[in-house]
Amino acid sequence: MKATEVPAIAGAYLFEPTPYADERGFFCRTFDADVLRSVGLAPDAFVQDSVSRSARGVLRGLHLRSGAGEAKLVRCSYGRIFDVVVDLRTDSPTYRNCASFELSGATQTTLYVPAGCAHGFQALTETADTSYRIDRPHDPAEDVTIAFDDPELAIPWPLPVTSMSQRDLEAPSLATVLEQKES
């Protein structure tokens, strides 16, 4: 497994496994504690695993957590997703930068999203399963959502949105979220 730093988002990494493929399919390691340690991450800090299944065009996000934030490892285990990270850490050298990636079940690449960054994705295939490993138990009272179509972010979502949660549909702009954070 190879770790690659994401230049647009300080502290973000892509972890690319080395699959072994044969006539049966493939096998690969999708989590390696030693590789995480090699880039300064504590593998035992992750406390919850979750999975979502989305249909083509479904958009989830942009989400982040208030308070101490939430770091996560994100991987598309089946299908393909367009994945987005927005750095909202005011002390970060990449503050307000946006980065996007295509994650897929074919590559099993994992994205590390640092705490304080917003995250969202759109399913590109008829079925897309996305796995999350997070470093704090989920507390809905700390959920923050930013409008996926905020003009300041100008995220180039690749497909028309077919479905999203009511919370995501009603999400405020980035400017509003940042104002609330300061007060």
Topology:
Layout: E1 2-5, E2 13-16, E3 20-22, E4 25-27, H1 33-38, E5 48-55, E6 59-65, E7 72-78, E8 80-87, E9 98-104, E10 110-113, E11 117-123, E12 127-134, E13 143-145, H2 166-169, H3 174-182
List the keywords.
183 residues; 5-stranded antiparallel β-sheet; single chain; 6-stranded antiparallel β-sheet; 13 strands; mainly beta
Can you give me a brief rundown of this structure?
With 183 residues, the chain is mostly beta strands. 10% of the residues lie in helices and 40% in strands.
Terminal Cα separation, in Å? 43 Å
Shape summary: globular
| Largest sheet: spatial strand order | 1-2-10-7-12-5
Strand and helix order: EEEEHEEEEEEEEEHH
Strand residue content: 35-45%
Q: Give the rounded overall mean pLDDT.
A: 95
Total helical elements: 3
Radius of gyration: 16 Å
User: Stretches where pLDDT falls below 50 for ≥5 residues?
Assistant: none
Class per helix and strand makeup: mainly beta
Largest sheet: 6 strands, antiparallel
User: What's the number of extended β-strand segments?
Assistant: 13
Helical proportion, percent range: 10-25%
